[in-house]
């Protein structure tokens, strides 16, 4: 008897964004800080994020894609939007940033993701 077993390819899905990103010191520091939070404090705080991906996953990807300064501000503002009365639903990190998002005006990062409540 011939038994054919079809195995699905082994896809490894991690918690954080696995896309390519430049491993600059700032990005490594920021992503490492987020990962440290995920491995330590996240378990005590609980799984209460109102967004998908979670706030820490969002911050990790934002830092990896856009660097420590821009991604860090995006992560901070995302956590602030997650509170009571804040936004909820799917809120993805933008692949690119518009030219209005400049280092000397970090408050502008607040508007990223505000209209994604769903």
Compact overview of the structure:
This protein has helices spanning 25-39, 42-45, 55-81; strands at 51-52, 89-90. With 118 residues, the chain is mainly alpha-helical. α3 (55-81) links the parallel β1 (51-52) and β2.
Explain what you see:
There is one protein chain. This protein has 118 residues and is mostly helical. It is built from three helices and two strands; from the N terminus they run ααβαβ. A two-stranded parallel sheet has the order 1-2. The longest helix has 27 residues, at 55-81. Residues 7-11 have low confidence and may be disordered.
Considering the chains and any ligands shown, give keywords for the structure.
single chain, 118 residues, mainly alpha, two-stranded parallel sheet, 3 helices, 2 strands, 39% helix, globular, Putative membrane protein insertion efficiency factor, cell membrane, membrane, Membr_insert_effic_factor_YidD
Helix-strand blueprint:
Layout: H1 25-39, H2 42-45, E1 51-52, H3 55-81, E2 89-90
Parallel strand pairs: 1-2
Helix pairs in contact: 1-3
Family: Belongs to the UPF0161 family.
Pfam family, one: YidD
GO cellular component, one term: plasma membrane
Instruction: Look at the helices and sheets and give the structural class.
Output: mainly alpha
Low-confidence stretches: 7-11
The end-to-end distance, rounded to whole angstroms, is 53 Å
Please give the share of residues in helix: 25-40%
Whole-number mean pLDDT: 84
Major beta-sheet overview: 2 strands, parallel
Q: In which order are the strands of the major sheet placed? A: 1-2
* Residue share in β-strands: under 5%
Number of strands: 2
Shape: globular
- Number of helical runs? 3
Q: What's the alpha carbon Rg, rounded to whole Å?
A: 17 Å
Element-level helix/strand string: HHEHE
InterPro entries: Membr_insert_effic_factor_YidD
Function: Could be involved in insertion of integral membrane proteins into the membrane.
Membrane topology: Peripheral membrane protein
GO cellular component, one term: plasma membrane
